[in-house]
Amino acid sequence: MSKQADIAIVGSGPAAFFCAGALLKGGARVDLFEKLPAPHGLVRYGVAPDHLPIKRTARQFDKVSQHEGFCYLGGVEVGRDVSVSELRQAYTAVVIAIGAPEHRRLGIPGEDLAGSHDAAAFVGWYNGHPDYRDTKFDLSNETAVVVGNGNVAIDVARLLVRDPEELRETEIYPPALEALAASQVRTVHVVGRRGPVQSSITAKELYEIGILNDVQPISEPADFELDSGSRDALESFTAQEKKAFERLSGFCGARAGDGERRVLFHFLRSPVEILGQDRVEGVRLCRNRLTADCRAEATEEEETLPCGLVIRSIGYRGIPIAGAPFDDDRAVIPNEAGRVTGQPGMYAAGWVGTGPRGLIGEAKRSGSETAQSLLEDLLGLPKPEKDPWWIRNLLEERGVHPMGYPA
Ligand code: NAP
Questions:
Q1: Residue 295 and which of 37, 77, 258, 318 are 20 to 30 A apart at CA?
Q2: Gyration radius from the chain CA atoms
Q3: Is 357 a pocket residue for ligand 1 (Cβ < 6 Å)?
Q4: Is the Cβ atom of 106 under 6 angstroms away from ligand 1?
Q5: Which of 47, 152, 273, 312 maximizes ligand 1 atoms within 8 Å of its Cβ, making it the mutation to test the pocket?
Q6: Distance 200 CA to ligand 1 centre (A)
Q7: Interacting residues of 355 by C-beta distance below 8 A, sequence separation 6+
Q8: What is the block-wise mean pLDDT of the chain (407 residues), using blocks of 10 residues?
Q9: Is beta strand 346-348 parallel, antiparallel or unpaired with respect to 93-96?
Q10: Residue nearest atom 9 of ligand 1, based on CA coordinates
């Protein structure tokens, strides 16, 4: 492979860095473009601040940044300051690794009432994300509702109830810590549209919530009367999946002690309306049943949970970037092993190519796979007409001054 190959990576999250590391090892040079000043994407702004071992993955990225041939261009938004097609003129290959930044919406009345937020905002806030760190969350009501049954939902619930003294030992954004220390929230309802067998919360996260100081997780025994589809699914579970289910069922019938905060798991319920005049006052839920193929189907039964805060945590969605194809149904850049369909020299890595699933392990797998595909293709890719200095000059002319990798 030619040592002279210059690769542009768009995005600086974990998949981007794992891809960069493998490309540099393969002898390529890498320019990494990030729209925010600071790098590391989800590791910095998505991983919960009390998950310190995962946060420390950033140290591996610091090592990548010290590699000869690596250049970080922070505060440069591809699609605004420079286009994908301009990058393609100056680099042998372009890797798109922009994640899945959009949050899915419930599409129900009241979703935009004050006090109803998507999880991206709440997670961004406690991690000090520039777009969210000034968001105000009203924590003056005793009850909050988190919609969704994934690991982001459980992160949000845990941060809402965790002892602020313990949070002080974490990497939480300090103003968020102060707000949480003054929070009146005592009860967090976590609402899943399907049953406990279909929950995506993993065993480790359920263990964590079970051992928090002065916090009692509680499940309702009635939600654990399984239909035959769920019983079959449970049979085929891996040991880890079984463990997650056992932990949820282990919370059945628990009672909170005096002064304890509570996390209440509710299954087979979907929000149909977020209630309130000027701000959130409650959530109207319908009871669901599971169809034979384990989808949620609404019944006539309804109930209301009064609350002052709703965090909607129902998954992320990829967004298109001009100059790259996009599969709108799957919300991904279509690709095979990172090779973007019909676009020689263009690659995708991480959630923009795979959809929003997994975290560090999946980012490593995807970033490495994309790098391997690219390195295999390299000899057959044409030399670009221009070079990376042309991009540097374009940015200069446009008044864009890239920031370097933080010390
Ligand atoms: P997720 O695991 O896909 O969970 C999304 C949840 O939203 C599911 O329970 C889904 O239910 C529910 N949902 C979707 N549409 C809904 C609707 N219209 N109404 C009600 N509920 C709805 O996504 P995530 O929690 O955002 O996490 C994304 C990825 O990051 C996951 O792979 C997760 O494991 C990973 N992550 C890992 C960690 C960690 O390792 N600690 C932390 C955070 C995130 P259905 O199942 O019924 O669709």
A1: 318
A2: 23
A3: yes
A4: yes
A5: 152
A6: 6
A7: 100, 318, 330, 331, 332
A8: 80 98 97 98 97 96 97 98 98 98 96 98 98 97 98 98 96 98 98 98 98 96 95 96 98 90 98 97 98 95 98 97 97 98 98 96 98 97 96 98 95
A9: parallel
A10: 149
